[in-house]
Amino acid sequence: MEYLILCDILRFGIFYDNIRYYMSKKSTKTKLTEELKTQLRTEFVQGVELKSGKRKHFSIEDLIKKYKVAPATLYRASQSEGWKALREQYNLELQEKINEERQKKIAKESVKFDDRLLEKANDVINQVSYYLNINEDAMNNGAKPFAPNQFLALTNSLLLAQKLGKISMGEVTENINVNQTIKEADAFKSVMELLDSVKEQRLTSDSDSLH
Question: Quick check: is 2 in a domain?
Fold first, then answer.
């Protein structure tokens, strides 16, 4: 009789130990409170910004491992609250915000570019005016004026400077294509080279007249 009682006690002890073991295994899972669920939803939907500035996104499996929550509980919560759709909506709004900021930056840089373009157009006009005054003085004093090709280069420079100024102020109404823009850029370079040529030839002419 005592032997049977002892066996029952041993069996009960083993059973109790098994219950305690499984209870301890179950208790390792973190309870999904409302506060924790909100945090997990935020990390899933928005991700987490790293020190590098990049944003890391987590899957449901990542969050289960990270916070040690019950998989079934978290899957059920994410599906019932539509976490996936919330993430897609957040990414869409984030991309729209990025595009808006990029457009603002482009517009700001465009204004700076137009200002520089207008400044260069004014520089060309000032240089051309300077040489035209020299040519006019030479004609009034009976000196040799600019050659026809040099005078044509000066007038072309004025026309190009006028067009650059209109472009910078957004007043151009004609159609502008890539090929035309490239040709005009080459023409502007040629005009600046011709202006330098006019200056050198004028200096040479003045030097010869002194001898």
Answer: no
pLDDT tens per residue, range 19-67: 555 455 555 678 999 999 999 999 999 999 888 888 888 999 999 999 9
Q: Which two tokens stand for residue 185?
A: 């850029």
Q: How many CB atoms lie within 10 A of CB 6?
A: 10
Domain count, the chain: 1
| C-alpha radius of gyration, the chain, whole number | 41
Residue 4: C-alpha distances to residues 1, 58, 111, 160 (Å): 5, 57, 97, 114
**Cα angle at 19 between 18 and 23, to 5 degrees?**
115
**Phi and psi at residue 55, in whole multiples of 5°?**
-110, 125
Q: What is the pTM of this model?
A: 0.46
Q: The domain containing residue 133 runs over which residues?
A: 109-202
Specify whether the CB–CB gap between 64 and 74 falls below 8 A. yes
d(Cα 13, Cα 3) in Å, to the nearest integer?
15
> DSSP secondary-structure letter at 55?
E
